[in-house]
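Final report, Chapter 2: Outcomes

The project's central promise was a pipeline that accepts a single protein chain and returns its three-dimensional structure in a standardized token representation, suitable for archiving and comparison. That pipeline is now operational. To close this chapter, we reproduce one record exactly as it appears in the project archive, with the input sequence first and the structure output second.
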Amino acid sequence: MFTVCGRVGFVDDGNTFGCDATVMMSGACPPPAPSVWKVWIDLPAIAASVPLVVLAVVVGAAQYLSLPSATDPRPIWIVLPLIAAVSAAVGLLLALREMRFAADAAMLLVGAELAVWGFMKRDGLGAAIVPTDAPFWLDRFTTAAALVGGVVFVAIAVWSLFVVPAPDGSSDASEPLSDSRERSGSPRPAHP
């Protein structure tokens, strides 16, 4: 039990407003119910790539399908976003099954595909006319977002794959690495 005895109020311009009170708080309240929002909080980072991947598929398909086949449109405009979409879906499923390493590898692939797609479409960022049926602002926004988002997703994936330790401590090492100079049984270096 927590009890506060004294004056409760506030001070404004040197005047104290309040009254004498005793506030008691008991620990008998039940804990709050588990939040539904916890599911959204625990979503993996690859879930953030899904809207951008869907947007890239829509813009890539609009550009590919808007040009006549006689002009030989580049299939890469639609293929790269489709590969990213499949990778994002597989990565999301793997993350929900708590296969973190595979989900992070899928996010690395999503980021690489988006970055390459954005890099290939970068000429449209400054062009007066973009050969697509999609609105020019949508095409440019998606291209810029794919460039930036792809690099960010690659950085997050590399960080997750190689820097962040496994959450369950399932590493092969029995104890953390140290900078000790004890002999490890490996051969000595050629040059000290």
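Archive annotation: The radius of gyration is 28 Å.
This record, like all others produced under the grant, will remain available to the consortium after the project formally closes.
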